[in-house]
């Protein structure tokens, strides 16, 4: 017993001696890298394998690849360059993909469970570290496969960038086409953010303007200029129930839902001049926010509901102002936010409230610009003319806007650094006034 | 004049002595002058030498008295004939008287001669002694001069040796300075190479680091190990950013950058790069 104890002491001291004798490591150089690149990261999406039943019309991996491309943060490997097609992480030859300089790989399977149900399984694999980051299974109707693809895109995007994905979202917009009698037909439509699954939710011979989403992404407010009288409607996109909520004399424009969903900011001219009001949706009670001889319009809520941004020409040119509010109205005078250029209008506030996207006149052209409110830094995102109606994606990573292309109005999505532009392939005719939906509430 | 000398031979002797004395004095003073003309090196040096005299210095030996050559005999003055008495004594008596007188005269002459010889001897002895003294002095002078000369020679040699030593020292110092400069230049060159490759590594890794919007105000520190080929064989998170996505992105940046650019093997700088720390991100 005693002997063992001694042996233990001996071993301990011996080991201590070893650690002591080990020469101290030479002070290693430290290389400090403050910033990386904002480039598109290489990722490969292997077409999902399919088992049983009718082959689905949706190619899930293509939808994911397109979503990731639109985000500007990924460059998916072209399908023709895929070096192997595993459908399971256990079948991946990591060295092959490493040699191909691929960072991440998405693999998956689709299985027909019954005619009304398909199972979708996917895995996101970190090729460089050789481990699986995400693995999920879904069960859905075959018609919902496209949405499942967007949901997978969201998970992949979030797992890699740390920012929530905004692919499983909608756009609301207005289309203008001509019928066989060359009469204009105005439609309010919603579609997946990539322009797929378009549904028309309202149709009119009169102009439709200013679509706006409720914070829960279930309702859209919009204005119809019905024979010269502006009427404000709200429609539930699932039930299609439509309700006229305002038709004051004069303007009833630019509705904007409060973050709590109970109120709506809008522009009314019932008192003689375009002013910003806040309306309680249930009681219809109005609170006047601005009181100025000039035009005040296009209200947008700050995410915490503490104030509104709006466009006003009170300084001689349209500029964006901010006003703080409470339940009784404005709590102080409006403050001008934009000073760069003669025209800044139509503010869309980023979900974190730190940036605004707006129409900015520079060099005689209307471009979409982002103003960083914290650093007072303006970035021009577009180089086309007549760019209009910017709207932030709910994750703050992308902006949809309207521009002119070959005489038509089209919608374009760009990441907030403007690095890439993704035109949405919607129907012929003019597509205008996009509004990006908030995140869908999980069912 | 001659009669005067004949009558008073002491004057001649005195004159000779005086001459001799002057001669000696002259000889001695001659050396003094010489000494005065060629002043000797400082006495300090002599003392220093005296403490450790060089082995080859000639030792002054006392001059052997016997060996000295005998002094040349001075011409002996002929004894003066004594004037005869004017009064003539009777023949016998006169003869006897004359005989006695002659004997007396002889005796006197002998004594005189003896005295003269004695004087001469003493003089010679004196002269000899003087000579001996002079020789000894000369010899002393000579040995002293030799000593001084040797001393000077030694000092000159010493001086030369010191100068040579000094020269070598200076050379050595110059060589060392040159070496230091060369080393500095070498170090600078090495630093230049190191800086260059740090920049290259930085550039490569930066281009493989995908920045995400959520990466503000996060910092992650990695420690990596490399092979001499630049291949990264180990990546360890030393200090996490607290965000697994941030940490993963920087690990990716390193992995994708492998092999990292390294100085050529000949530069012998691999030890500097064998282990590297990477700090990703900033506080702002």
Topology:
The complex is a heterodimer of chains A (443) and B (284).
Chain A: H1 2-21, E1 29-33, E2 41-45, E3 49-51, H2 60-70, E4 74-76, H3 94-99, E5 104-114, E6 117-126, E7 131-140, H4 145-161, E8 170-178, E9 184-192, E10 199-204, E11 208-213, E12 219-226, E13 229-236, E14 242-246, E15 252-257, E16 263-268, E17 275-280, E18 286-288, E19 296-301, E20 307-312, E21 319-326, E22 329-330, E23 335-336, E24 344-349, E25 355-362, E26 365-372, E27 377-380, E28 388-392, E29 398-405, E30 408-415, E31 422-423, E32 430-436
Parallel strand pairs in A: 2-4, 2-5, 3-5
Antiparallel strand pairs in A: 5-6, 6-7, 8-9, 8-32, 9-10, 11-12, 12-13, 13-14, 15-16, 16-17, 17-18, 19-20, 20-21, 21-22, 21-23, 24-25, 25-26, 26-27, 28-29, 29-30, 30-31
Helix pairs in contact in A: 2-4
Chain B: H1 2-7, H2 9-37, H3 43-51, H4 91-207, E1 220-226, E2 232-239, H5 244-257, H6 270-273, E3 275-280
Antiparallel strand pairs in B: 1-2, 1-3
Helix pairs in contact in B: 2-4, 4-5
Features:
heterodimer; A: 443 residues; mainly beta; Rossmann fold; Neuraminidase; 2 domains; 6-stranded mixed beta sheet; 5-stranded antiparallel beta sheet; globular; B: 284 residues; mainly alpha; Fusion Protein Consisting Of Minor Coat Protein, Glycine Rich Linker, Tola, And A His Tag, Chain: A, Domain 2; 3-stranded antiparallel beta sheet; 6 helices; 3 strands
Question: Distance between termini of chain A?
Answer: 68 Å
Q: How many structural units, i.e. domains of chain B?
A: 2
Given helix and strand content, the structural type of chain B is: mainly alpha
Q: What oligomeric arrangement do these chains adopt? A: heterodimer
CATH topology of the largest domain in chain A: Neuraminidase
Q: Find the biggest chain interface.
A: A-B, 28 and 38 residues
Mean pLDDT of chain B: 78
| Spans of at least 5 consecutive residues with low confidence of chain A | 10-25
Number of helices of chain B: 6
Strand order of the largest sheet of chain B: 2-1-3
- Helix vs. strand class of chain A: mainly beta
The string of secondary-structure elements of chain B, in order, is HHHHEEHHE
Give the C-level CATH assignment of the largest domain in chain A: Mainly Beta
């Amino acid at each position: 017993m005693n002997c063992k104890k001694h042996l233990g002491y001996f071993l301990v001291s011996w080991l201590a001696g070893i650690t002591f004798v080990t020469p101290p490591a030479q002070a290693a150089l430290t290389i400090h890298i403050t910033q990386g690149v904002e480039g598109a990261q290489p990722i490969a999406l292997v077409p999902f394998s399919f088992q049983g039943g009718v082959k689905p019309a949706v190619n899930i991996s293509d939808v994911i690849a397109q979503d990731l491309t639109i985000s500007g943060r990924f460059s998916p490997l072209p399908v023709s360059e895929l070096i192997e097609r595993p459908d399971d992480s256990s079948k991946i030859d990591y060295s092959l993909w490493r040699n191909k300089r691929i960072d991440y790989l998405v693999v998956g399977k689709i299985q027909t469970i019954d005619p009304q149900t398909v199972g979708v399984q996917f895995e996101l694999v970190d090729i460089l570290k050789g481990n699986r980051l995400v693995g999920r299974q879904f069960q859905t109707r075959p018609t919902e496969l496209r949405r499942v693809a967007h949901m997978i895109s969201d998970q992949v995007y979030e797992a890699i960038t740390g920012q929530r994905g905004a692919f499983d979202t909608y756009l609301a917009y207005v289309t203008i086409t001509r019928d066989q009698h060359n009469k204009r037909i105005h439609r309010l439509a919603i579609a997946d953010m990539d322009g797929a699954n378009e549904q028309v939710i309202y149709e009119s011979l009169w102009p439709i303007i200013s679509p706006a989403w409720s914070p829960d992404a279930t309702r859209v407010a919009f204005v119809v200029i019905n024979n010269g009288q502006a009427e404000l409607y709200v429609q539930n996109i699932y039930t299609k129930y439509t309700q006229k909520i305002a038709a004051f004399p004069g303007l009833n424009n630019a509705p904007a839902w409060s973050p709590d969903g109970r109120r709506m900011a809008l522009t009314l001219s019932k008192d003689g001049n375009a002013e910003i009001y806040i309306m309680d949706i249930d009681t219809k009670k109005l609170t006047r926010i601005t009181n100025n001889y000039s035009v005040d319009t296009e209200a947008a809520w700050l995410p915490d509901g503490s104030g509104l941004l709006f466009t006003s020409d009170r300084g001689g040119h349209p500029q964006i102002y901010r006003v703080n509010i409470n339940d009784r109205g404005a709590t102080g005078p409006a403050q001008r936010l934009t000073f760069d250029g003669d025209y800044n209008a139509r503010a869309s506030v980023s979900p974190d409230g730190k940036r605004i996207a707006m129409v900015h006149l520079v060099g005689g052209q209307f471009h979409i610009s982002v103003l960083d409110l914290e650093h007072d830094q303006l970035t021009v995102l577009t180089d086309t003319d007549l760019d209009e109606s910017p709207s932030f994606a709910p994750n703050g990573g992308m902006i949809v806007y309207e521009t002119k292309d070959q005489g038509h109005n089209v919608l374009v999505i760009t990441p907030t650094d403007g690095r890439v532009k993704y035109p949405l392939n919607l129907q012929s005719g003019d597509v205008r006034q996009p509004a990006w939906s908030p995140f869908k509430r999980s069912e | 004049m001659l009669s005067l000398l004949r009558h008073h031979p002491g004057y001649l002797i005195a004159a000779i002595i005086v001459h001799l004395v002057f001669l000696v004095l002259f000889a001695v003073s001659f050396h003094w002058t010489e000494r005065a003309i060629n002043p000797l090196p400082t006495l300090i040096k002599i003392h220093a030498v005296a403490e450790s005299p060089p082995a080859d210095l000639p030792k002054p030996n006392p001059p052997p008295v016997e060996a000295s050559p005998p002094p040349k005999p001075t011409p002996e003055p002929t004894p003066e004939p004594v004037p005869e008495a004017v009064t003539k004594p009777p023949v016998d008596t006169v003869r006897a008287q004359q005989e006695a007188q002659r004997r007396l005269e002889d005796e006197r002459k002998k004594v005189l001669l003896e005295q003269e010889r004695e004087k001469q001897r003493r003089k010679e002895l004196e002269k000899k002694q003087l000579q001996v003294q002079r020789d000894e002095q000369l010899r002393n002078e000579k040995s002293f001069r030799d000593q001084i000369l040797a001393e000077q020679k030694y000092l000159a040699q010493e001086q030369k040796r010191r100068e040579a030593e000094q020269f070598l020292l200076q050379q050595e110092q110059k060589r060392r300075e040159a070496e230091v400069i060369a080393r500095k230049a070498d170090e600078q060159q090495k630093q230049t190479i190191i800086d260059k490759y740090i920049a290259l590594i930085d550039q490569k890794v930066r281009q493989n680091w995908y920045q995400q919007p959520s990466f503000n105000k996060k910092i992650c520190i990695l420690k990596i190990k490399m092979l001499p080929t630049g291949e990264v064989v180990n990546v360890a998170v030393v200090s996490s950013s607290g965000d697994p996505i941030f940490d993963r992105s920087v690990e990716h940046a390193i992995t994708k950058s492998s092999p990292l650019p390294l100085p050529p093997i000949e530069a012998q700088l691999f030890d500097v790069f064998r282990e590297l720390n990477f700090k990703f991100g900033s506080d702002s």
